[in-house]
Design goal:
Chain B: It holds the Pfam family DSS1_SEM1. The complex is a heterodimer of chains A (383) and B (88). Chain A is mostly helical. Helix content of chain A is 63%, strand content 5%. Chain A has three domains: 1-183, no CATH class; 184-246; 262-376, no CATH class. In chain A, helix 5 runs parallel beside helix 7, helix 9 packs antiparallel against helix 10 and helix 12 (256-264) runs parallel beside helix 15. Chain A is elongated, with a radius of gyration of 29 Å. The chains are: A mainly alpha (383), B mainly alpha (88).
């Protein structure tokens, strides 16, 4: 079967055959291009044909070089085209990324990143006033490729630059839901996941992290093939949600004790699970979130003290100290009798932690240092 | 100095690996570390969790402040605090 490539460039559309033509895998078809052009299309044709034959005979490095040339050429061609070219360009860019991954060298991955960034830019900077033909619909999908690359490179600065560009241009570009990604839901999920991870795990912006990650989850389907992806999202989402005062009903096993401790105000149980999962939390950028959740466990403990002490609005620090000592001691261990000095220090430390909770609006009330008590709002002590 | 820190890290990893459950969750996450390869490219909007009734409410509950969790810890805490209340 022989396929005429001319009409794609005259009709400004693509189909499966055109994508097959661009693919490195030779599918036994022959392609021909006869239309007169300024040479770029001929070059693309030759490079693509070379790529297909290199796949069979060349080294990984040779395949990489030709694949890079192919993307560079298509980038130059795409600059003159309307947005029909965006998806074929994405396929070529993704193919180049997959090839770069097999080489697994930093410098090659960086080269790949630079060329894909050009594809991203030629989408982002399209000034075509006819919006239905504007290439800006493609920027999220190329951004996803860049996110993947920067993950591989463990380069957070490049991620930061990318997010900054996307944020500063968000008035001009279509929303994710209006973009090409809407026909490829996996890309909507990916984009929201990477943004959520960026804000929640690296920038300490848990509110945005939570927003992006719950969007990522909501756009997944229930298909069992996506189970792993959903689980991965939930792993990052749960700590952010807890910090947003959402209460998860069901959590992955790793969070079982965290959740239990949060429901009872058990600080030693909380600390034990942080200790046990420390490396996991560090590797996944969740350690900061976990440190902040400890404050909510303490808050819960204070609520328990308040309730068990008869819900009076004046709560002596000595009562909180009893609860705190109970909560921080492990197992059946008996609380030791404190020296007056140690007792003073404990109350000072509690005052300090309570002041933080008041400042963060978790508690409504004020501290009386001279009376060593906290005076709680009668109406709404725990907003 | 560096060697010492690394050694400490190694021990930590080993002790983690010996805890059942932890090792498992770590392994699956390492595999999944790359969020990139999706087994499906797309799916119909009607099939997303967003469009599935009750997905949101199945995930989160409003608050559990009024929910009493009766475990060993809360029982002891309650007993101790109620004791000090009656003593005063």
């Amino acid at each position: 079967m022989s396929i005429n490539l001319n009409h794609y460039f005259t009709e400004k559309c693509y189909d499966g055959n055109f994508l097959n033509f661009l693919s490195i895998h030779d599918n036994g078809r022959s392609y021909y291009l006869t239309m007169p052009n300024d040479g770029k299309l001929d070059e693309l044709y030759n490079v693509t044909m070379e790529l297909k034959s290199r796949q069979l005979t060349g080294t990984k490095q040779q395949v990489f070089e030709v694949s890079e040339q192919q993307l560079k050429l298509l980038n130059r061609i795409a600059e003159q085209e309307t947005n029909w070219i965006v998806y074929p360009l994405f396929i070529v860019a993704e193919q180049f990324y997959q090839i770069s991954k097999t080489i697994n060298s930093i410098s090659e991955l960086e080269r790949c990143g630079r060329t894909i960034h050009r594809s991203f830019n030629l989408c982002l900077n399209d000034r075509n006033p006819t919006l239905p033909k504007n290439r800006r619909i493609g920027c999220y999908m190329f951004a996803n490729l860049e996110f993947q690359l920067y993950h591989k490179l463990k380069n957070r600065d490049m991620m930061k630059n990318l997010v900054k560009v996307l944020q500063s241009r968000r008035q001009e570009i279509p929303t994710l839901r209006q973009s090409l990604a809407r026909y490829h839901k996996s890309h909507m999920v990916k984009y929201n996941y990477y943004m959520g991870e960026y804000y929640g795990c690296y920038e300490g912006d848990f509110s945005r992290g939570h927003e992006y990650l719950s969007d990522a989850l909501m756009d997944c389907s229930r298909d069992p093939r996506l189970t792993k992806k959903r689980q991965r999202i939930v792993i990052l989402l749960v700590p952010m949600a807890v910090l947003m005062k959402k209460r998860p009903v069901k959590v992955p096993e790793i969070y079982h004790n965290m959740l239990k401790a949060l429901k009872t105000g058990n600080l030693s149980q909380y600390d034990a699970q942080v200790h046990k999962n420390e490396i996991f939390y560090l590797e996944n950028g969740l350690y900061v979130a976990m440190s902040l959740i400890r404050e909510l466990v303490l808050l819960r403990l204070i609520k328990q003290c308040y309730r068990y002490y008869g819900s009076r609005n004046i709560l002596p620090l000595s009562i909180i100290a009893i609860g705190y000592t109970k909560s921080t001691q492990r197992g059946k261990q008996r609380a030791k009798k404190l020296t007056p000095q140690a007792e003073r220090e404990l109350l000072d430390s509690l005052e300090c932690q309570l002041a933080n909770l008041i400042a963060k609006d978790h508690i409504k009330g004020y501290l009386s240092h001279s009376n060593r008590c906290i005076v709680l709002s009668k109406k709404n002590p725990f907003p | 100095m560096n060697g010492g820190a690394n050694a400490a890290m190694e021990i930590k990893k080993e002790s983690l690996a010996s805890v059942p459950g932890v090792e498992q969750s770590q392994k699956t996450l390492e595999e999944d570390d790359e969020f990139e390869d999706f087994p499906l490219d797309t799916w119909p909007s009607e099939e997303t969790l967003r469009e599935t009734a009750g997905a949101q409410t199945n995930l989160w509950e409003e608050d559990w402040d009024d929910v009493e969790v009766d475990d060993g810890f809360t029982k002891e805490l309650r007993a101790e605090l109620e004791k000090s209340r009656t003593q005063q």
